[in-house]
Automatic annotation (TrEMBL):
It comes from the Bacteria. This is Lipid-binding protein. Keywords: Signal. InterPro entries: Lipid/polyisoprenoid-bd_YceI, TTHA0802/YceI-like_sf. Residues 29-195 form the Lipid/polyisoprenoid-binding YceI-like domain. It holds the Pfam family YceI. It comes from Pedobacter steynii. Residues 1-21 form the signal peptide.
Amino acid sequence: MKLKLTSLALLVIVIASSAFIAPVFKADTYKVDAAKSTITWVGKKLTGSHNGTIDLQSGTLSFNGKKLAGGNFVIDMTTIKDADKSANLEKHLKADDFFGTDKFASSTFTIKKVAGNGNTVNVTGDLTIKGITNSITFPATLAWNADGSVTASADKVSVDRTKYGIKYKSKSIFPDVGDKMINDEFELAIKLVAKK
């Protein structure tokens, strides 16, 4: 009888405590459609600027309901294009002075934290370029489309290239570079289209 009462008491404790445990929801994974997604870049220097595109290789976004919970994407660094179609500039950007694409063919971004609710959030994550990883934070917007897909956009992602070992004509590293200096920061505009 004592054993039955002990078992019953344990059962009551387990049931009561489980009522206070928050349910764990499994995040929904959305696959990024590389063909519908875009990444553009802008690099500035004292005497002007250059801009172009770079292709997305793959990616996923995770959602709890309509709340962004995580994700990652891979950028194909070998696809850097200059909008003015300068073959020399494209070759230089792929060289060791800049992104060294022969050795580092891809860069990655992994979401670590998402702050804010609704369609406007701040995303913090690890950006890896040339095998070097740094944390960056940027604002992003989410839009749910009629076909069930979601568009995640970040119009201005500032990246300090010197933190990734890209020092070419950086005034902060080479003060005597004069008017040949290139800004340490370049900007990315990212649009990811993903579907469950």
